[in-house]
UniProtKB/TrEMBL annotation:
The keyword Metal-binding does not apply. GTP 2 binds at residues 179-186, 226-230, 288-291. InterPro entries: G_ENGA, GTP-bd, GTPase_Der, KH_dom-like, KH_dom-like_a/b, P-loop_NTPase, Small_GTP-bd. Pfam families: KH_dom-like, MMR_HSR1. Residues 2-164, 173-343 form the EngA-type G domain. This is GTPase Der. Keywords: GTP-binding, Hydrolase, Nucleotide-binding, Repeat, Ribosome biogenesis. NCBIfam families: GTPase_EngA, small_GTP. GTPase that plays an essential role in the late steps of ribosome biogenesis. Belongs to the TRAFAC class TrmE-Era-EngA-EngB-Septin-like GTPase superfamily. EngA (Der) GTPase family. Associates with the 50S ribosomal subunit.
């Protein structure tokens, strides 16, 4: 996915531009967690390309362009392939503009200068000065009047990496909610789709076909499968029923949202987590009702969650509140990201380059004085990504070493959060 950062001194119109491009509801915009609380991320679609926009505007405090802000901005812009440098030529260039320009030059990413607030052609006389920034031809636009946005995006596309996938006919991502009754699944679905249209009435005694709910987000189609199961609560053993429903739902989906309430994780959740794990499908732990956790308990609650869900520790967490729509964007963004990685394929040459590094960093296990030898690694399947490792003796492999390799595969091959499989094959 293409990533583009929006930078510039305060008041030039960065957030106006961001909101204009991301469009849709502003509520879908998520804050970055942690350090860069004030950088925003949004998704947009242009000519069949998905683009992640990063607005670093909120990082500025007053007029100072300090080291600390620069560092946060660099962190937030990690992975961006190009930068839109927003200016306000009607007001003229300021010292701050030149400071940002110097910083961007050092950063070395391609820069497109956006001349904002060019609300009408008569304002175009202001553009000449912008050449002085040293980034070439500025793009005239008006965030407020939606002028010049396509010109800007065409320039952004010039810096799109050649291997970026075109998505002309985007398959829907099929997702299911699993979780015990009352954790907030229906409420989350309503928050996601922005409507109340998914209330499914209880119909005791009738076996309803599963109901699929569809909606679009950032140019991506989503299908929530088996929605009937969310509301249906027959009298007999709700939890057993929920497990059966979850199995069916998991089979029919690509990605799974396991919804939990942070203060109530029990055997039921662990069973569901195991089902999700066994399916080999990406699972996202959605910790809902986060609004009910008092601030002073957030850290300890997170720690407890980590302990309880350690066997799917690779699965990403998102923290949500269905009632104030917090974290909704994260749920969708994570689902898109994992779905893509889950289907990705790593070239054999790259795998074996990494294998060399991994075996150098961590000594291979010995079995009665004989070392495990790994000759060659290749990806044999996608969805889930499955790797075959050719070795001298499969029984020499220790759990610890296998765990180490799985972690390396996830981290070094960009598969964080994705369930991966590793098969050992003996080769004479
Ligand atoms: P930021 O601090 O760079 O994020 O700037 P904002 O997006 O908050 O915009 C600063 C001010 O400029 C606001 O009062 C906007 O309404 C105004 N503004 C933004 N874009 C335009 C534009 O295209 N034309 C005009 N005339 N004003 C704009
Ligand atoms: P489901 O059975 O999993 O579909 O759960 P529902 O969506 O029916 O929600 C169960 C109850 O929890 C309802 O009373 C909701 O209003 C409430 N609820 C759902 N999400 C949240 C949340 O994020 N915060 C709070 N405080 N209450 C929630």
């Amino acid at each position: 996915m293409h990533k583009v950062a929006i930078v510039g001194r305060p008041n030039v119109g960065k957030s106006s531009l961001f909101n204009r491009l991301v469009g849709r509801r502003e509520a879908v915009v998520a804050d970055f967690p942690g350090v860069t609380r004030d950088a925003k991320e949004g998704l947009m679609m242009y000519q069949n390309h998905r683009i992640i926009l990063i607005d670093t505007g909120g990082l500025w405090s007053g007029d100072e362009w300090e080291q600390a802000i620069r560092e946060k901005a660099e962190w937030a812009m990690e992975g961006a392939q190009s930068v839109v440098f927003v200016t306000d030529p009607r007001e003229g260039l300021t010292t701050a503009d030149y400071e940002v320009a110097d910083w961007l030059r050092k950063l070395g990413k391609p820069v497109i200068v956006a001349a904002n607030k060019i609300d009408s052609p008569k304002h175009e006389t202001y553009l000449a000065e912008l050449w002085g920034l040293g980034f070439g031809d500025p793009v005239a636009l008006s965030a407020e009047h939606a002028r010049g946005l396509d010109d800007l995006l065409d320039r952004v596309m010039e810096h799109m990496p050649a291997d970026t996938e075109d998505v002309p006919d985007i398959a829907p991502i099929r997702i299911s909610f699993i979780g015990r009754p009352n954790v907030g699944k229906s409420s989350l679905l309503n928050a996601l789709t922005g409507s109340e249209r998914v209330i499914v009435a209880d119909q005791p005694g009738t076996t309803r076909d599963s109901v699929d709910v569809e909606w679009d987000y950032a140019g991506q189609r989503f299908v929530l499968v088996d929605t009937a199961g969310i509301r249906k609560r027959p009298d007999t053993s709700i939890e057993e029923y929920a497990i059966e429903r979850s199995k069916t739902a998991i089979e029919r989906s690509d990605v799974i949202w396991l919804v939990v309430n942070a203060d109530a994780i029990g055997d039921h959740e662990l069973k569901l987590a195991n089902l999700a794990y066994d399916s080999g499908k990406p699972v996202i732990v959605v910790v809902n009702k986060w609004d009910l956790i008092p601030d002073e308990d957030l850290k300890s609650t997170e720690r407890e969650l980590n302990e309880k869900l350690h066997h799917i520790s690779y699965a990403p967490r998102v923290y949500t509140s269905a009632i104030n729509e917090y974290g909704i964007h994260d749920m969708l963004a994570e689902a898109m990201k994992l779905y893509e990685k889950w289907q990705s394929r790593v070239p054999t040459s790259e795998l074996n380059r990494w294998l060399g590094i991994w075996t150098m960093k961590q000594r291979v296990p010995n079995f009665h004085g004989k070392p495990l030898r790994m000759y060659f690694m290749t990806q044999v399947e996608t969805a889930p990504p499955t790797f075959a490792m050719f070795c001298n003796r499969a029984e020499f492999v220790t759990r610890a070493y296998e765990g180490y390799l799985m972690n390396r595969i996830r981290e070094d091959l960009g598969m964080a959060g994705v369930p991966v499989r590793l098969k050992w094959k003996e080769k004479g």
